[in-house]
Amino acid sequence: MTRNWVNPMIYTLIALAIFYVGVQLFTNTSSFLSSIVMMIGIAVLIYGAIYFFFIRQRIGSGGNSNEMKKYKQAVKQSKQKYKAPKPVKSTKTNTSTTKSTSLQKKKAKRKQPSHLRVIEGNKNNKKDRASF
């Protein structure tokens, strides 16, 4: 039952507010516009202060910024590693340039993958299994 009288009261308040804004706009335009600009400015300042002191700290906390830096560094390294080689533009086809490019290709093929490495150990000291 209490909702029956609340809805018309809210609509009445909204209608009166719109009527007041219209009256202020036509009777005292300069002060109305200056007050609107001040309200917008104050709202921006309040939002900026709330964002600066509360929201920004929540976003940066928890190690997220450190993890993001590491992620960006890993992406950068991955792009450098897997980027496609640029085609060589040559107007002259000399035998010396073709030999040098073939040598470069051979060197590139011989290069070991970066994720594999040789582990040094005692390979010459083989145990005699018969002595056990």
From TrEMBL:
Annotated NCBIfam families: SA1362_fam (NF041554)
Annotated Basic and acidic residues bias: 117-132
Segments traversing the membrane: 9-26, 32-54
Superkingdom as given in the UniProt entry: Bacteria
Ranges of Basic residues composition bias in the record: 104-114
Protein name: Uncharacterized protein
Annotated Low complexity bias: 87-103
Annotated stretches, region: Disordered: 62-132
Keyword Transmembrane carried by entry: yes
InterPro entries: SA1362/YqhP-like (IPR048110)
Keywords of the record: Membrane, Transmembrane, Transmembrane helix
Lineage: Bacteria, Bacillati, Bacillota, Bacilli, Bacillales
UniProt keyword annotation of Cytoplasm present: no
